[in-house]
Amino acid sequence: MFRKTTLQNGLRVVTQKLDGTKSVTVLVLVGAGSRYEKEDNRGISHFLEHMFFKGGDRYKNTKEVSEAIDSVGGEFNAFTGKEYAGYYVKVARESIDVACDVLSDMMINAKFPQKEIENERGVILEEYNLYQDTPMYQIGWNFENLVFGDQPLGWDQIGKKEVIRSVGHDDFVEYKKKLYTSDNTVIAVVGNIENDEAVEKIQKYFDLESKKKAYEFEPLKKLNGGRVNIKEKKTEQAHIAVGFPGCSERSKDHFVIRLLAVILGGNMSSRMFLEVREAKGLTYYIRTGTDNYIDGGTFVTNAGVDLKRVEEAIISIVEEYKKIGNEDVPASELTKAKEYLKGKMVLRLEDSEEYAHLLGKYELLHDQAKSPEEIMKLIDAVKVSDIRRVAEDVLKEEDMKLALIGPYEDKEKFEDLLKF
Does 49 qualify as catalytic in the annotation? Predict the structure, then answer.
């Protein structure tokens, strides 16, 4: 069973001993995602993530940071979401001190040298261009902008080019000071290590000043981002996202809507896959999923479609939405979805990094980590009537939205397709 320990400085540590593995993951999660940004610093959260790898006191530059982890055959990476950022190192059990030492030096003693900032601008601008040139990435951000509108949750994490080109040393120092605080940080240690020893390591290496974060992100506002978003682009394949506003992470229906997504388009035996792809041959890839945040979410089907059959594909996806909202799903279909969701979770949690992320995320966002067993009970508790109720509540014609990337420009024509 996992254990939670709150240190005197307010830092929360969640630990889990895993039998059958020789590795350990140390994951630092901080409530400093892109939702904490304003219009004038859009992208600073992600840029800051890059800058932590530029060195501190003991590991003075990127080369020394990388060599320290490479020398023990470890893995390290970082990511920036909308509600939090994460940094992890995964190593063999005997190298746990290296993992803690490198991560703590990066996080506590980062220098943000201006020369490195200038170098990293080019890297991030190229990353920006990569997303712009990769419709499978961009389509998701375009859809979320429809759902959430012009506010931080509706913006992408990469930010604005003007900010990327102008942000400097003092901006990073100030942002870190405001949000990278002991009360706004959770460290998860998962793998071949006893709970007590894991806590001792964190106490030793992460001697953070006791401090509270400067501000919370703004609550989600009800803004209308529109019904159709078309990004006109010469492509060989149209990319579409058809969906609705969804449920939040804290909703009682969180696992209901996730099971609804599995039934509709979560795997190769789902309704969307069998009907839209296999029976009609309309798409190369198709999947239905959810993105869930503290106070909002999305429910969406993404697909890559033949340019000449995009209207037919949209109509077919809409038809599957209509069907599942008008009738109960068979109990056997719900059972299959439950076993799929639980089985995928079991497979993911064989990786200590995934396990650490699960515990750390729940602790950071909900102040209460959840075990896999607790999550499975919540999944098993979902009834056929819950699926029907949530389908009727979420999959409403008037709330349906479409994001599209391809050689198109007629919004009205596509808006007319969003009808049951």
Answer: yes
User: What are the two backbone dihedrals, phi and then psi, of residue 349, each rounded to the nearest 5 degrees?
Assistant: -80, 0
Catalytic residue selected from 37, 39, 49, 374: 49
- Position 224 pLDDT exceeds 90: no
CA–CA distance, 401 with 319 (Å, rounded to integer): 14
CA–CA dist 13, 196 (Å, integer): 11
Q: Which two tokens stand for residue 71?
A: 């020398």
Cα–Cα distance, 196 to 183 (Å, whole number): 21
Question: CB count, 10 Å around CB of 340?
Answer: 17
- Assign 345 a pLDDT band (cuts: 50, 70, 90): very high
Amino acid 396 reads K
Residue 222 has phi, psi (to 5 degrees) of: -85, 90
The C-alpha atoms of residue 160 and residue 23 are separated, in whole angstroms, by 38
Structure tokens at 397: 């014609």
The DSSP letter of residue 278 is I
Distance CA 270, CA 174 (A): 48
Locate the domains of the chain by residue range.
Answer: 3-205, 228-415
3-205 and 228-415 in the same fold: yes
Q: The tokens of 60 are what?
A: 């003075």
Pairing of strands 23-30, 12-17: unpaired
| Length of the chain counted residue by residue | 420
Alpha-carbon torsion, ordered 145, 149, 154, 156, to 10 deg: 50
- In single-letter form, the type of residue at position 3 comes to R
84 Ramachandran zone, left/alpha/beta (phi>0; psi -120 to 50): beta
Rounded distance, CA 404 to CA 238, Å? Answer: 7
Between CA 16 and CA 383 the distance in angstroms is 31
Give the orientation angle of helix 135-148 with respect to helix 114-132, to 10 degrees: 90
CA proximity to 177, closest of 118, 110, 104: 110
Q: What is the mean pLDDT of the chain?
A: 96
- For domain 3-205, the question of CATH label 1.10.10.1100 is answered with no
Q: DSSP character for 217?
A: P
* In CATH, 228-415 is 3.30.2010.10: no
Q: What average pLDDT does range 147-169 have in this prediction?
A: 97
Both tokens of 406, joined, read 């391809």
